[in-house]
Known about the structure:
Chain A is built from twelve helices and eleven strands. Chain A is α+β, with helices and mostly antiparallel strands and 409 residues long. Chain A has two domains: 19-168, 2-Layer Sandwich (Muramoyl-pentapeptide Carboxypeptidase, domain 2), CATH 3.30.1380.20; 197-408, 2-Layer Sandwich (Muramoyl-pentapeptide Carboxypeptidase, domain 2), CATH 3.30.1380. Chain A has a four-stranded antiparallel β-sheet with strand order 1-2-7-6. In chain A, helix 7 (231-276) runs parallel beside helix 11 (348-363). The mean pLDDT of chain A is 95. In chain B, 61% of the residues lie in helices and 5% in strands. Chain B has a two-stranded antiparallel sheet with strand order 1-2. In chain B, helix 1 (5-14) packs parallel to helix 5 (53-67) and helix 2 (19-26) packs across helix 5. Chain B is globular, with a radius of gyration of 11 Å. At the A-B interface, helix 7 and helix 12 of A face helix 2 and helix 3 of B.
Amino acid sequence: MFDINRYVFDKEHNCLDVAGEAMIFHCHHYVNYLQRSILDATYIDSRRFLIGSAADAVYHQLSNLCQELDVAQSKQMAESMYKTFGYGLIDLSDMTEEGITLRTYKSFFSKTWLMKFGRSDKPVDYYTTGYLAAAYAVIYQKQLSEIVAEQTACMSCGAEQNTHEIRCGEGNFATYPAKQVTLFKDVPKVSIGWEHEDTVTNAFLGAHATFVGNEEGLIPAFGVYLVRNQSDYINRLQFEFVRAMSEVAGEYGETLAAELLLESGHACGFFTYGGVMTSEEWNTVVKPLLKTKEDWIKGLASLVNTMGWGYHTAVELSKDRAVFRNYNDFEDLSYMRLYGESKYPIHWANSGGFTGLMQLVYNTDLVEGEVINTEEGFRQMRRAKAKYKTNMTKGIACGDDYLEVEISL
Amino acid sequence: MKDAKHIFSCAIANGEAKIVDRILVRVLPELIKSNQKLTSESILTSESIEVSDELYDYIRSVAQELTGLTCCEA
């Protein structure tokens, strides 16, 4: 029913739009670290935006996809898209005008939370709760604000299966105003400046479409589990977290939140980029072209520019200091769609990712062939004496032409 | 008042990379009530971190919960 191959990768802006939603991959390390950071702030009612962010993005997307479909077809579309994106499996056949009690054994969030952190004391699959609320709203023409959505059992807590309850009532999650259209910054780009950039980029163009959910609705790749997120879903989590922390403690609260958001990106850079740079595909296509450590970073940028995260490049690059840019990065574009302008850079995931990449290439033995992208490897790397500092200097949401971040020892 | 420096030192020695920031996020409302704006950097550079007895106990319990260790005793 849902076919990712119908959607054309935008090579000019290095992004992928699916039915009105920009889509980006994240790994389970990033997603879970981000969610745990939010849940650590127990004094914030984060459940409302954890569900609401998913519901808003999915509602927008499914509304477009189901326009010409009847109820049965719409259910199939929602099930199929969920599986394709790597969130697990859902069966909507029991959904009626009254709602649904949905049970599933396959959940990206519940499975990978357990893998990374062990047992949770609360259900963790807020995304699926929001997804189901959105599907119900689209299929039975309800407003999100008149839906009650709750996860009542979770495998991460020891339950045999996940259970979600969706019904009509007084809405119990956040809803949001309509968002703005995407405003790309079409400015001249500083290229990666590497003779093999086109070779690598062209080799991996279209590869994103091979990352689709398997028979379990999961996407194991590069030693991690990937999910294809609606960019506005995952980024709204960051922005709403920072906003809530600001309400509690002003700039101090924002600073504490930002540290953990950067660390989420750092983990993503370490595990996912580490997985990519030790993969069979990398060893076959990219590694033969690499002579220096700088080549490793440029090779990775050439590859990830085909994944929908924007155009990554480095304007300065050495072991001691690097200046990275991302043209039309997913965080800034998302922020502008949802909130407009920002007073300060908000691209924590990108910047943490760049920092993780520097650590990987310059402060580990990855380049020498050692497999280090394990939890223990991450722990050891983060305890290394040489630590990179991250300085977010420019952002599109701040009015700049691109994202820029300085990474230095 | 008690010195909470050793709790953070213990957590840093045994916990994950950003353990101090996680502890601070967890205890944030109590820090604000006490007019304390601790950061991971200020904790690293301070010789001592004087906090009320109640806040000390709270920081210690959160540190123990997040690290899974009881090494954060005085």
